[in-house]
Amino acid sequence: MVRLSPEEKIYIIHGVEDNIREDGRSQTQYRPIEVETGIIPSAMGSARVKLGNTDVIACVKADTFTPTWNKPDEGKLQLHVDLSATASPWFEGRRGEQTSEEITTILNKAYESIKLESFCIVPQVKCWLVDVDISVLSCDGNMYDAIGFAVKAALATTMVPKIVASEEDEGEKELQITDDPFDTWTPNVSNIPCLVTLSKVGDSVMVDATNKEEQCSSFTCILAVTETGKILSTFKVGPGSVQPVTFSKLILEASSIGRSLHSELLSALKKENGLRKREIHGFLN
Amino acid sequence: MLDSAAIEDFILDQKKYEENIPYESFLPENVKFKTYEAKLSEVYKDGKRADGRTRDESRKMYIKLGALVEARGSCYLEIGDTKVLCGVSGPREIPYLQGYTELGSVDCVVESNPASPSDKAYSDALKRALEPSFCRHEFPNLEISVSVMILDASGSALAAAITAASLALAHARLPIFDILTSVTVGLHGDLLFIDPTDKEEALCMSYEKNSASQNHGLITLSYMSTADQITHYYQNGEMDLQLLLDTMDIGISRCKDIYALCQQRLMDEVKISMKTVTDTQNVEDSMKNLSTS
Lengths: 285, 293
Description:
The structure holds two protein chains of two kinds.
Chain A: H1 6-17, E1 33-37, E2 45-51, E3 54-65, E4 76-83, H2 93-110, E5 120-122, E6 126-138, H3 143-156, E7 160-161, E8 163-167, E9 173-177, E10 184-185, E11 194-201, E12 204-207, H4 211-216, E13 219-225, E14 231-237, H5 244-274
Parallel strand pairs in A: 4-6
Antiparallel strand pairs in A: 1-2, 2-3, 3-6, 5-6, 7-10, 8-9, 11-12, 11-13, 13-14
Chain B: H1 4-15, H2 29-32, H3 36-43, E1 44-45, E2 48-49, E3 61-65, E4 73-79, E5 82-93, E6 105-112, H4 122-130, E7 142-152, H5 157-171, E8 180-188, E9 191-194, H6 198-204, E10 216-224, E11 229-239, H7 241-292
Parallel strand pairs in B: 6-7
Antiparallel strand pairs in B: 1-2, 3-4, 4-5, 5-7, 8-9, 8-10, 10-11
Helix pairs in contact in B: 4-5
Keywords (chain B): Cytoplasm, Exosome, Nucleus, RNA-binding, rRNA processing
Organism (chain B): Nezara viridula
Domain Exoribonuclease phosphorolytic (chain B): 57-175
């Protein structure tokens, strides 16, 4: 991570306050977002998201489990983050492990209150347990937003062989996996939120901060916003505090940004799905 | 009730679906699956909560400063049945530090009684909440350690931990910008519970599928009253935008109430310690008078 001198910080802060940032963006403008799905053939679903120089890959694997008695028709969604040492030497060894663990806990908390009734196969018998493994290959700020995109994109393109319950004798249900390779189950992603990170720099609020801008921000919070603009989770990261007035402004902004991000992402996925034959680019730009 | 043969049958039946069987599976049906109405009335009935409070009433609070002898500053705090003990020590040098840090660090550890397990994320949340209130610029290269033991987690444990930690910092005579107070607000449909107990928290984290309002969740926020700053905010659940903003205002006003209480308690503590100082001085003076005469 590049350390900034006080003068450089003042330059960046003044830029954000004047609504022209270092790279020419406005306060509420994201860097160009690249999403590519299906880049890992062995996974049930995968997506790579590039947000400027931030690079994130998400892989989905699905398993089944017996639900607990008090939640008989709810599936599970588990996230696991791995910070690659290629992103920053900071992530090497024990320290990287600790940071990954912290981020994993935060993310699982943010995704905790999603309604997952669509992840149910047969109530009280079997539900889907969906694991999402995220690896951060390169990090230039705003990692959480990129992770949010990658998770949603990967889940939206996941294909798992369908499991059907057939009524057997004695009223017991037997589960069978279909033989037809085109008969698949895809998770319903309408409940999956997007993460929106907002940082307060000087007197103004901005989205999608780069590494340098993150160093200048006095307050950062992350909101999980659904497609309808509802808030699933809000949490503060990093040191710093904020006035209640600014904070409510921040929440309002996050909700509207979150909604537009959802519509952009869904239309992009739809467009990609419509392509008849698509070459997978991967790392060959 | 179930007889032993039926239970054995049930176990055999369950074995087919492998995995561990929670003991709740063996409870009779009427205990196992409560209706939503039954669950709600257990917690909230006729405008009263289970412990007789109204919805916007906090539980009784008890603060004791200097509960630990060894620590530099300490605080024991009770909110209803939730009991929290906090000790502060330091400042000391940051171990294995390479280079120079301008700002000191706050090292927080939250432990809990094994009987009432609490969250893994609490330590991090406490650190995030305390950092802005502590004058870190006065302690370059140094760290203070705050350890919190949650003795009994019956709701609003994180809020209690934050308030206790801030009071312990004040009691340790360490420089802070302001005393931090924290409150948890629970939300379930149209009902808003201030300072929820653990049962109310569980209700707030669940939702009724068929009801009109799907709003539910918990909000914990910590607030510096004089500086007018929110230092920590954690919300989980599903909430409309407007509701979220309204709930924040309610939480802040409650934080201000607790602030007044904390201030009074600290003033009492100062008075007591001042009295001890003057008392010892009086004794010393009289001893001197005796020796001269």
